[in-house]
Amino acid sequence: MEASPGQQQVYGHAARRQALNACDACRKRKTKCDEGKPSCGRCFRLGLDCSYIETLASKKNVPLVELTGTLKQMDEKLDILTALFRQNYTVSQTSLDCPDQDGNHTPVTETSSGAHVIASSTFQMVEHVDNQHGTLPPFFDTSRILEELSLAQRHSTAPQHLLSWPCSPLKLSEPELQYPLVLEIRRQKLSRSTAPPRCLASHGNDVKWVCRLSLFQLNSLTRFYFSYFQPTCLLLDESKFYSHYLNQAMRNNFDNSIDTCIVLLVCALGTIVAYHEGCEEWAQTDELEIGLGFFNLATEMFDDIEAVDWTSVQCLLLMSLFHAAKLRVYDTWRAVHRACCTILILVPLQTGLDPQDCRLFWVAYLQESQLLSEFDFPSSGLGKLASTTPLPVVAEPGLEPHSAHYQLFFLALVAMRKLMNRILYHLYGQDDRRHETNASGLSPTGRLGMLQSTSRSVICELDRQLEEWRTCLPQSLRFPGYDVSQDSQPLEQYSRRSNHERLRGYLMARYYAAKSQIHRPFIHQALHCEPGTHLSEEIKMGVRTVIGGAYLSVLHSGLLHAPLTLLLHPINSWRSLFALELQVVLAARSEASSYALPSHWDTVQPARQRIAAVAILMSPTAQRDNEILERLVEINR
Fold it and tell me: How do residues 433-459 score in pLDDT, each as one tens digit?
């Protein structure tokens, strides 16, 4: 059969490329040449002179021998990396619990060496070595690690996706399941009012009302910020704030400058805390607008002075904290996304990052990942730099104990976020790679297929890594592991917590939430089994863990201890409660899983209704979540 012109062209190109790399003798005879040097195989056998025409190397005509040599070098380097990984893993394991001379085991403490152990072991470890076979699991490759650290734009762990399960009595279509994103982008814009708080309103509403703030008032508001928001995110250096930013802003009479902008944003956040601490003089006309005067003055100023630098990143992340406290999800994402994009520009331009810049990177990483775990906003891609950016570990001489404590908490938070992203990638991100999706996101078939085909070994390995994270925590932040008897405490209103209790509670909430996410395939299997099916003890325990973990996550998140606006990631805390009640409703309808309900599961609905009284006024997503739960309650009556 005669070849087509296109085929002749392809064949001709291949022949020319082969001839280009062949030796002179083989080219004249038009025979295949193995390109060996100094003499090819044919010339060596026949005793011929073997010479080559020097050619410019390119990707299309690299000699086979050179390619083979390059691959061999790569294999050798991988062998070295594998050996180093095994060695570091062994060292980190022994350093976590090293026996002293008397045979006693020394626990990890809050020292800088302890922080190093945390950073170099669990928090940096991707997977463990299979000691039995002496091999590394398939997770150990660079591209997979980068994907693990970057949260996918679309995922199936947001709680409303539980309504797509066949056992759900309330059915929502794929477009309807996108209601959180739709509602948030369509909500009314934030008021642009720059009116002063109540204590300054008697002087009029001119924009210079900030200049009338006394030193006592400024100190009070900024202290509220540093006592409540700073411990959870480490956005600012406290000493630098007072010695530089506040000092410069006051010296220049709060002119249009980046220093004034940072001070105003800190005051806006401090005002929210002050109001909930009983200082009602900082209220606005509308309770939902607390701090808005400071905030809008800062944003107007920032539009004129924004630059591509780390100080602007600080401003954007402070803005995102304010929007998050107001449960304005879309505005939060916009501020975080701008900060992340600025960081993506800055990092490649610098030979190294100082400790504060590293912290800003990880604050942005945490805020974006937490937001994308609930809402299908586009990712900035900041996670691609996570594997090469140093962890925010600082061992400064003379560091105050509370500052060291906050840094260890922040390090633990970063590690947990990495682990959560890994959980989402291995358990819930596979539908993006294995199943077809429609224009609205994940197909129901793909989502259910993913849950049904989850490997038990993957679940066990992720659970092992979660437990390792917990055991490597500093002593002051450590807590007992999950036990089914822990869910016996009712969801009632509790007294306020100290800063230490609050930080420890946040870590506990993340731990239990991760526990629930890891074992979710078990409750899916139990809810969809045939009537009369005997469930194994593994599945029964998995179902208890899913609901119990979700219950304990809400219990320790702070929802029952503090106002919603003062929580770390308030909208995520609300949606954790939403997810808990959804799972309780589904489990209560099934004989195969009703045994797994917590002892005080009947307190979940009253707790949700109490918190919803505030949440639905601030968030259309919370309002819709609440409507769905009320509808399910009616169906179950």
Answer: 444 344 334 444 444 445 555 788 899
